[in-house]
Design brief:
The protein is α+β, with helices and mostly antiparallel strands. About 20% of the residues lie in helices and about 40% in strands.
Length: about 190
């Protein structure tokens, strides 16, 4: 339980530090438009809007974050936002270590653009996944947390869809750490 609590804190801190879900403010547009969250540092963190790429159904899309934490009412229509090891040689996020994001398949009815509430989950190799060799981790050192087995591949296959993550978790090969954080974001079909 202590590991779960610490990893939850890690993911929440990662979301803030890396700008996974920054508030969009008019000043960001005056500076030439939204920038990649990876490029935002220093006093601009939490003060300018940004985007990052996410995986959905094996393809990368652009996601624009509209807030750092959902403070609205009902969260029954929340979907998953998975944080895991980079799936290609270029990570989608940088802090506190290189990572990628996965969301559910984009809805077809509105040509791939929608707004949604997302709940953060950290994707780690489970003990069963590590012992069996089915889960390939990227061992990531996180200050204050030690080394954690961030999931990279399962049975040699990439984890670029929600269904691949969820089926591996159901099989006991992955551990999904619920961060409790809910964010609001828009995913766009174009990059």
């Amino acid at each position: 339980m202590n590991l779960t609590r610490r990893l939850t804190q890690l993911v929440l801190a990662s979301a803030v530090v890396a700008g996974l879900a920054l508030a969009v403010v008019p000043a960001a547009l005056a500076g030439g438009g939204l920038r990649n969250c990876v490029d935002i540092t220093g006093s601009q963190i939490n003060r300018v809007g940004c985007w990052e790429n996410v995986w959905a159904d094996g393809r990368q899309y652009r996601m624009t974050f509209s807030n750092t934490q959902y403070k609205g009412g009902d969260t029954t229509d929340v979907d998953a936002f998975y944080v895991l090891a980079p799936q290609t040689s270029v990570a989608q996020g940088a802090l506190p270590f290189g990572h990628d994001h996965v969301v559910r398949d984009l809805p077809q009815g509105n040509q791939g653009t929608y707004s949604t509430k997302l709940r953060g989950y950290f994707v780690l190799c489970s003990e069963q996944g590590l012992v069996s060799g089915a889960c390939e981790p990227t061992m990531s050192v996180v200050e204050g947390f030690g080394t954690v087995p961030v999931a990279h591949r399962v049975n040699g296959a990439p984890l670029t869809s929600a269904s691949s993550i969820e089926s591996a978790a159901d099989a006991g090969l992955l551990m999904l750490i619920d961060t409790g954080a809910v964010i609001v974001a828009t995913t766009t079909a174009s990059r």
